[in-house]
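Listing S7. Sequence submitted for prediction.
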Amino acid sequence: MKGMNIKKIIILISCVVVNFYFGQSEYRDAFTLKLKVDSVRFYQQEIKKSPYFVKDDILQIYPGEHLFIEAEVKNGKIETMKVVKDNINPEKTIEIDFSQNTEERKNNGMLLQVKNPFNISLMYDAMMYIVGDTRWIKTSIIPVKPQLQSFEMWNDPIISLVLDNWRLEK
């Protein structure tokens, strides 16, 4: 009987450790997304536990998320990307913050901040899914200059952004 309890404790501890080290940064926890549309209306959606990268280098981000993305670069190309909990390698970690600016209970615009840790310009493509539309809309993005931060702003309340085709360019 005592041996069974010890086995259960070891299995439980192992599951917690594995989940902490491997599961925590690949997936976002479930949450309720709330966006202000105007002074009267708001948008609300239940977001299920889901991966940040929906495929290879395709990142889906929601308002309120602040992410650290570690990138492995080989021969001037981004080879792999992964979301990490902490920025422990700032020389190869892209920092992204997506937020809604509100004032007096209404939408005052959406803001995407991208910090480039590299010595070369960072480029990516973006699509947005906005309140009141049923399709993904391509949007233009400016390059993020070396070792600087870019600011992208939109007036529409954005439910989600998809950022992909990440690349480094001179």
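Caption to Listing S7: primary sequence and predicted structure tokens for the chain studied. The helical segments are 2-23. The two ends are 66 Å apart (CA to CA).
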